[in-house]
Amino acid sequence: MPIQTQFPSGFNQKYVRYLLRDRFLTAVSAPLPSTRIATPGPGSLVKVTDSNNDASIAGGQLRIPSVVGDLDPSYYWRQADSNGFSRVNGRALVISAQGSPWVGWSNSITLATSSLLYGAKERSVIDAGTEYQQALTTGDPTHIIVLESTGAWHYCRHGTNEFRCWRYPSGNDAILWPAILGQTSNYDSIYVYDVTLPAVTSQLTTPAQGDPFSHPLSSFYFEVTVTTRSTNADTYISFARQDDDNRLFLVISPAGAVSLYKRVGGVQTTEKAIFGNGVITSGSRIIIQWSAPEQFVTTSGNRFKVWGGSSFYDSSLSAAAQTLLDASSSGLISIKPSNCTLTNLICASFT
């Protein structure tokens, strides 16, 4: 049976029932056995490949000191009954690691780089074949990868200094396994338990001209896909909007560049030039994340992050722009002309 214990801080539940809990409490010299019972449990660790035979458990860590290749060494975890983990809305894989982990949910115990559907490789997320550089934080973060009926959410936090969020839009494999691939790193703990999914404040499958949407105050995740990019006029995505004269908005140019503008008291100025020409093409996802300093950042100030295609932008914002973000919770789509189409607009709170 899963074990019930106090829920970690930051979530809205008091208790969690562990389906997998491995804190590596009992030292095991290299080489590790083919199957090892998780400590304190439940669950077990299964070795797929470790040609160097030097992975060990010491000092409360699973230690991977060397690698032969992407899949050597490779390990996965299973439940106490030796089965994988069913896809359930809110089922979370929680990993605390040091170094450069390559870890996540795999859809197969015949491990391959393509089988790791949702996970981290150093600072990158690989999503539907696109590698998103710097999508994750530096240092030794904690990763929380939460399944949905389709896709997953990925939260990454390093202490109180930085927080990032990612959404995987695809994948509906019924059974999954936590797995690690060939990357030198130390793992402090691996858990699987069920949590509450993030609060999605707006989801528009096919946003059209003038469609409104809402987002949380202060800290939020905002995503839209540019299905067909206009090549003869700008496309506007207005957010942090109080009214027409007080708002922030992204402009996607006909050449595929992206800029952030602010309009305060009717006066419009450029806030940031984000991406140059050619970055946004038909099919590109644009992801915006705003981390308010009072909630998620203590040393870096406010952070405004944008991913487009495989490019990444991270900067602080002016006081005027931050005031808009802290006070506004709505947005508006402005598509001109009609040959630019957007799909799957999602706004979510990660507070």
Question: What's the structural blueprint in terms of helices and strands?
Answer:
Elements: E1 3-6, E2 15-18, E3 20-22, E4 35-37, E5 44-49, E6 56-58, E7 61-64, E8 74-78, E9 85-86, E10 91-99, E11 102-106, E12 116-121, E13 124-127, E14 130-132, E15 142-147, E16 152-158, E17 162-168, E18 175-180, E19 185-194, E20 199-204, E21 212-214, E22 220-228, E23 235-243, E24 246-252, E25 258-264, E26 267-275, E27 284-291, E28 303-308, E29 311-315, H1 319-327, E30 330-335, E31 341-349
Antiparallel strand pairs: 1-2, 3-19, 4-5, 5-8, 6-7, 7-19, 8-18, 9-18, 10-15, 10-19, 11-12, 11-18, 12-13, 13-14, 15-16, 16-17, 20-31, 21-30, 22-27, 22-31, 23-24, 23-30, 24-25, 25-26, 27-28, 28-29
Q: Fraction of residues in helices?
A: under 10%
As a percent range, the share of strand residues is: over 45%
Please, what is the average pLDDT? 84
Specify the overall morphology: elongated
Can you tell me the number of structural domains?
Answer: 2
Protein traits:
Jelly Rolls, 2 domains, 351 residues, 31 strands, 8-stranded antiparallel β-sheet, disordered N terminus, single chain, mainly beta, 9-stranded antiparallel β-sheet, 1 helix
Describe it for me?
With 351 residues, this protein is an all-beta fold. It has two domains: 3-194, Jelly Rolls (Sandwich); 199-349, Sandwich (Jelly Rolls). Helix content is 3%, strand content 52%. The protein is built from one helix and 31 strands. The protein has one helix at residues 319-327, and strands at residues 3-6, 15-18, 20-22, 35-37, 44-49, 56-58, 61-64, 74-78, 85-86, 91-99, 102-106, 116-121, 124-127, 130-132, 142-147, 152-158, 162-168, 175-180, 185-194, 199-204, 212-214, 220-228, 235-243, 246-252, 258-264, 267-275, 284-291, 303-308, 311-315, 330-335, 341-349. Strands 4, 5, 8, 9, 11, 12, 13, 14 and 18 form a nine-stranded antiparallel beta sheet that branches. A hairpin with a 2-residue loop joins strand 28 (303-308) and strand 29 (311-315). The longest helix is centred in the last third of the chain and has 9 residues, at 319-327. Mean pLDDT is 84; it is low at 1-14 and 294-300.
